[in-house]
Amino acid sequence: MKSIILDHTGGTDNLIISQRNRPEPAFNEVLIKTHALSVNPVDYKVRANEEILSLIYGDQRPAILGWDVAGTVQKVGAGVTHFIEGDRVFGMINFPGAGNAYAEFVSASADHLAKIPEGISFTAAAASTLAALTALQALEGRVEKGHRILIHAGSGGVGHFAIQIAKAMGAYVCTTSSAQNRNFVLDLGADEHIDYRAQRFEQELRNMDFVLDMFNGETLLNSINVVKPGSTIISLPTPHFSDEILAAARAKDVTVKQIMVTSNGEDMNTLADLLASGKVKPHVSQIYAFEEMPRAHEHLETGRTLGKVVVTV
Predict the structure, then answer these.
(1) 3-state SS, residue 236
(2) Which of 81, 97, 162, 279 could be disulfide-bonded to 135 (CB atoms 3.0-4.6 Å)?
(3) Which of 311, 269, 289 is closest to 40 using CA atoms?
């Protein structure tokens, strides 16, 4: 089978197409014929950074990157009872462990997958995996009907899902983005848009119940000023916060924490229901062929992706 392997970290020229043996599903796994996969910032960070690659893959070389997959079940392991050959499935597999989605065939835990709803394409399903799971797991149990919340970077991969999921939960959603993406985030359902270049969100907002932060640093510090005492801010980039941020959070009785998205079939089924109902629709800004994986990485590394980037196999 065709796969994309990584022997050494560095530039996109280190992503090499190679012929590998087709995997066999273990007891609780299914073998998936990949039709589409999604690329995320974690992919290029692992590709470029030896420390991150080793943290996730250990000494496994070559590594096959990728965590988001959508395809057709080709074979089921002996312990699998809820999928059969021919099922259309999608999921984020093995995260935060070693992924293996950059391949024509992928063996994955059945517990990480859900069936793709009727009428949803492989491309849309692949887009609705890691980024959508991150948004769901950040909001779930923290956002309720009637809450006023702030989602930073609402036009990005996680942000554009978070807006839609929060609206499905009944929240009033404020979001930041550039002026050129104002209509995009409002069409997703955001109630208020703040142009981060022309406006200071901390001067525009008060008494928010929750913030989803994508930046840490000054943005996170200023976010503490806009939430109610006793509220929660989920900050995605890192679990390490400055003394200034921690002191400000303590002074206002605000919980600031990072979460790490994890593969979860139950949450994938929640996303499947949201896709089926039309309450969540992924925006795919660019589709690349499998052989164009380096271009997909380069596209994401610009930091200007609207929604998601998908690679077809």
Answers:
(1) coil
(2) 162
(3) 311
Q: Is the pTM of this model over 0.70?
A: yes
The stretches in the chain having pLDDT less than 50 are: none
Q: What is the pLDDT of residues 122-147, one digit of tens each?
A: 999 999 999 999 999 999 999 999 99
Relative to beta strand 172-177, strand 208-213 is: unpaired
DSSP secondary structure string for all residues of 296-310: HHHHHHTS---SEEE
Coil, strand or helix at 186: helix
Can you read off the two tokens belonging to residue 24? 């066999």
Torsion of CA 185, 189, 191, 194, to 10 degrees: -10
Q: Measured between alpha carbons, how far is 291 from 313 in angstroms, rounded to an integer?
A: 9
Same domain, 116 and 20: yes
Full residue range of the structural domain in which residue 289 is found: 2-128+282-312
For 90, how many CA atoms within 13 A lie in the half-sphere containing its CB? 30
Together in a domain, 137 and 176: yes
List the helix and strand counts (H, then E) for the chain. Answer: 11, 15
Q: How many structural domains is the chain composed of?
A: 2
* Cβ count within 10 A of residue 123: 20
Residue 72 in any domain: the answer is yes
In angstroms, the CA 202 to CA 281 distance is 29
